[in-house]
Design goal:
Blueprint lengths: L2 E6 L6 H13 L2 E7 L10 H12 L5 E6 L3 H7 L4 E5 L3 H17 L4 E5 L10 H9 L10 H9 L4
Parallel strand pairs: 1-2, 1-4, 2-3, 4-5
Helix pairs in contact: 2-6
């Protein structure tokens, strides 16, 4: 069984992230969505809430597992026997960062491959930071996050 690891902060998960998960499922038998603790990014949502939002968004998808992690991505990949990392690219501006990250991960573990997937054009403008900005102004987000995530954020004051 070919397993791919899709790591990220998912603060919160967006339609773009979900799109990448669906695309990865067409390529791999199993996708593990790994939600990073990532204190450096100072997430808006606690780790437990971010994990729950990803689980809710992916509840109906077969062969998706959701985990939280605090170690290096390559260490988690080895633990889970997931030699493929999935990364999303929305625009050229993402490419340089993602390329450097891919090279860094490869330098740490030569068995790791990184696959870059692009979301549908309709989700190319969506980012977690844009969702967080909208939330600060109590603006609607239902058009850029999965429905279950919108409901979760409205119903559970995780912020």
């Amino acid at each position: 069984m070919k397993t791919a690891l899709y790591p990220g902060t998912f603060d919160p998960i967006t339609n773009g992230h979900y799109d990448i998960i669906e695309r990865a499922l067409k390529l791999f038998d199993k996708v593990v969505v790994a939600v990073a603790h990532n204190k450096e990014k100072k997430p808006m949502f606690p780790l437990e809430c971010r994990i729950e939002m990803v689980k809710l968004a992916c509840a109906h998808l077969a062969n998706v597992e959701v985990v939280g992690f605090e170690n290096l991505t390559v260490e988690l990949a080895k633990e889970l026997d997931a030699p493929i990392l999935i990364r999303g690219l929305r625009a050229v501006s993402d490419f340089e960062y993602e390329l450097q990250l891919g090279y860094l991960n490869r330098s740490l573990n030569h068995d790791i491959e990184t696959i870059y997937l692009m979301p549908r054009l309709s989700n190319a403008f969506v980012s977690s930071s844009s969702v967080r900005a909208l939330l600060k102004y109590n603006a609607k987000i239902e058009h850029i996050v999965p429905k279950a995530v919108d409901s979760y954020i409205k119903d559970n004051q995780c912020i």
